[in-house]
Fold these 2 entries.
Entry 1:
Amino acid sequence: MFSIPLADDAHLFPLEAWHAEEFFAHIERGREYIGQYVPFPDRSKDLEAARTLLGTNAHKAADDGVRLYGIRLDGTLVGGVLFPAFDAAGGNAEIGCWLEPAGVGRGLVTKACGVLLDWAFDVRGIRRVEWHAASENKRSIAVAQRLGMTRDGVMRQNHLHRGVLQDTEVWAILADEWRAHRAAAGPAA
């Protein structure tokens, strides 16, 4: 199976419909933690719903849109990264992430996002990638900062999640900014 090493014990791989059982088990383990800010748990209430979610996203990827990638730690799916929006013709994309508690604090999301940003900017010619995070989601905002992104602004009360209106911070990085950030970080980034 195709995968990219993130660390000795962690790998990034395309998350597809045939991973539904593994994905659902992961969602079950981290349902409340992940669901604080990410809709996957609410959209994956059972195995069939998880399979549908992954299948729908696979169709979007085939149309050069949304892409999902899982992160395995010691062989267990603990989270992932994604392009919830990908417009190659327009040169814009959005990147995001989710993790269950077992994957937190290891830098896996930052490394995985770096892989996706390299591909988006260097291979696909994307010019701008955004990061959207609830203002209260300090861990997510910290990833955007570690990736060298700039805070573009806050969309106030724009997102209803689990009955609560949330403010969304928009962070972004341009292709030349990413290349400069990557060069400054060196080969270990």
Entry 2:
Amino acid sequence: MASSTHKQQQQLPNMYGATAAPPPTPSTQSNNLLSTSDAADALSRLLHRLPPTLSLPTRRSPASTCLPAVSLSDQNPDLLDDLLSHSGFFQLTGHSVPAELARSAESESLALFDLPDDKKESYFPKNWPLGYEGDHDEDGDGLGESFRLDSSCSTESSTELSLDSLLEFTSALEKVGLRIIRLLSDAAGFENPVEEDPTRFSSLMWISKGLAGNKPVSAGGFYPYILCLQYQIRYRKYSLLSDSGWATVTPQVDSLMVTLGDIAHVWSNGKLKKVRGRPVLANLGDDNSRCISMSLLITPPMDSKVSPQPHKLPIGRGNEEKREEQIDGSTAEEEERLFNSFCFEDYAWRVYHERHLINDPLDRYRI
């Protein structure tokens, strides 16, 4: 037995060589290692020497922001200045959209989410960007179910669904939106492409069910628009993403929350600030079963080109004589273009599917 054990020991490899010393023990290493305190001090000094660009970003909750109010009343002498002075979003009072109409449209919209899934898909087939998207659609926006309807609120069923109030509501929002675009073009001094030409814009009614919690995954789904309007039926908080970061706003009941989009930003050659995507409902808690948002997006038609619009002199700022000279044949002073032209359909498809969260999708078109 002893002989067998002796043979096994002879067959074991010599891991350290014939003259190598045995591996060091903790007691022999104690003088060569930094103490825990020394190591922490060394790490702290190293981190303090790192340049600021290498510091790790911190995730912050959206900051609560006061939502500016703008009166659409004809008696508001500062209307144009008010529209220019805000960072791409404000609440509109003195508008013409009836509260009863908004509530009726909401009731019809809520009924859509009660339909069986097969009817949702058959009544609202996908024809991007229109149609129905469920919670788990592969190309969905990750923000719950949504219906996207054109300005006629058309469906594949003309007998089982009645969307008369939603259609009237969409038309009322559209009229307000077109007026705001006209006022913005006057205030910022650019030609309005949709003025007196109904073929130069489209409307998209985006009805979505929010998710519980305060998780602004994206700015409500990225689809380019000139402006977005949302009627405030009740007290709700929204998260939105502007160029200065995430913000949380709380519009007044019965006001219209207006956000200016990337197309308005390009048309104005950067004069108008913008919001990326739609505002999304925030702080919904655990029960969001009956919480929806109805957003009207006014957009260019699919086949249009987007570029800064020709410059004109703003009205209401002491430029009346110069404007008369411009009409008589002289041209307004040209300003340097900040953006190259691009195809709206290509841009819309890209930003919708790429889901930009940090980088501005317009950066690639800046000159």
